[in-house]
Write a structure and sequence with these properties.
This protein is an all-alpha fold and about 375 residues long. The protein has helices spanning about 40-55, 55-70, 75-90, 90-105, 110-120, 125-140, 145-155, 160-170, 175-190, 195-205, 210-225, 225-240, 245-255, 260-275, 280-290, 300-315, 320-330, 335-350, 355-370. Helix content is about 70%, strand content about 0%.
Length: about 375
């Protein structure tokens, strides 16, 4: 499995109490009256947020949808629904709601960041960068959004622009560990390992408890072929921020690379113990189980397939699950007829710059040669 090494979880808090019900707007529009929120919609939103906090996500989703139905301009409800849908694994639905919230509240940095995070998790780094570019252009002092913009630029291959934007963050917030870490990763993406190492060290020195700094150091170690040091740095990152699953996901990737499938599965199960519907952890666990499977453990394949099908039931557009389920059918179950449609769906959903696109095209050609389907000339988004 070629997993994304730096997926960032959406960490935005639910939005009740985060502002009055109106689309935040520039001063020039301050004299425009905004209709007050519908009290019934607000009541349902508050109930939905409480349900989410109580772990009743299905009820939360239903209540928030009812709030939106009553008052479609209630941007906070759309934001909250987007955050809850991320927790259920429905990233496509989350993106839709967050995009609507961003249109209704173009001044909200929380919304802009949450939308950018979801797009990155869906492999839409170029689209994430475009949206964040618009936001930071209108809000040049928004450091959090600009830092995320750096990551989206880097992931979409716009490295020089990422470096320039990271330096802009550092002008506004000198010695910021996260910005230094992003700058290190941007130089690493250019193959400038010495510069990346210096910047990663500066990030750790600036804040020894920065998860981002330790993750960047770990990725540099990984690029240098030192998986043991990489794992150690990812562990430090996990200890620095126990709420952030990214570092445990990275630890799982290192273990997968090493063929330590049982230990990788343990890392992913630990994430799922806390967040049962974490998409990346389910896909990672499926890859680990796939690696563990053999003649004595055929049930591992069934469990892996069940996990990937669960992800796709929540979000039929999830490219990572589509790709990995296709690989499972093609390489492990030898069912080209079942694999081919999955790779076709992947190619229809994946953006043109998706890192697994070329692999999917090769897999689809192989499945087609085996009688699975005719390989289409599908173009990405």
């Amino acid at each position: 499995m070629r997993a994304e090494l730096v997926p960032l979880a959406v960490t935005a808090a639910l939005c009740v109490g985060c502002g009055s019900h109106k689309s935040a707007r520039p001063e020039s529009a301050a004299n425009v009256k905004v209709a007050p929120a519908n009290p019934v919609a607000v009541s349902k939103m508050v109930q939905g947020v409480q349900a989410a906090k109580d772990g009743q996500r299905d009820r939360a989703v239903a209540l928030l949808r009812e709030a939106i139905q009553v008052d479609s301009a209630l941007w906070e409800a759309r934001f909250d629904l987007g955050v809850v849908l991320v927790g259920t694994g429905d990233l496509a639905g989350a993106e839709e709601q967050l995009a609507s919230s961003a249109k209704l509240s173009p001044e909200s940095q929380d919304v802009a960041v949450a939308l950018g995070e979801v797009r990155r998790r869906r492999g839409e780094s170029k689209l994430a960068a475009q949206g964040l570019a618009d936001y930071v252009r209108d809000h040049p002092a928004a450091v959090e959004a600009r830092t995320l913009y750096v990551a989206a630029l880097r992931e979409s291959g716009q490295i020089d622009k990422a470096i320039a934007e990271a330096r802009e963050v550092l002008v506004r917030k000198p010695a910021d560990a996260t910005a230094l870490a992003e700058l290190a990763l941007s130089h690493l993406a250019k193959g400038e390992k010495d510069a990346a190492a210096l910047l990663a060290k500066q990030a750790v020195d600036a804040n020894p408890n920065s998860a981002a700094a330790h993750r960047a150091t770990g990725l540099l170690d990984l690029a240098n072929g030192d998986d043991a040091e990489a794992f150690s740095e990812f562990r430090k990152a996990a200890q620095a921020d126990p709420r952030d699953t990214t570092s445990r996901l990275n630890m799982g990737v290192v273990l997968l690379r090493a063929g330590a499938y049982a230990k990788a599965a343990q890392q992913y199960r630990e994430i799922l113990r806390v967040s049962a519907d974490d998409v990346e952890a389910q896909v990672g666990l499926a890859a680990a189980l796939r690696g563990e499977s053999d003649a004595q453990h055929p049930q591992k394949i069934d469990e892996a397939r069940g996990l990937l099908e669960k992800v796709l039931a929540a979000d039929p557009h999830n490219t990572s699950a589509l790709f990995n389920l296709g690989v499972l059918y093609q390489d492990f179950l030898k069912k080209s007829a079942d694999a081919a449609p999955l790779f076709k769906r992947f190619l229809a959903e994946a953006p043109s710059d998706h890192p697994l696109r070329a692999d999917a095209e090769r897999y689809l050609s192989a499945a087609s040669a085996a009688g699975g389907a005719t390989a289409p000339g599908t173009k990405g988004k």
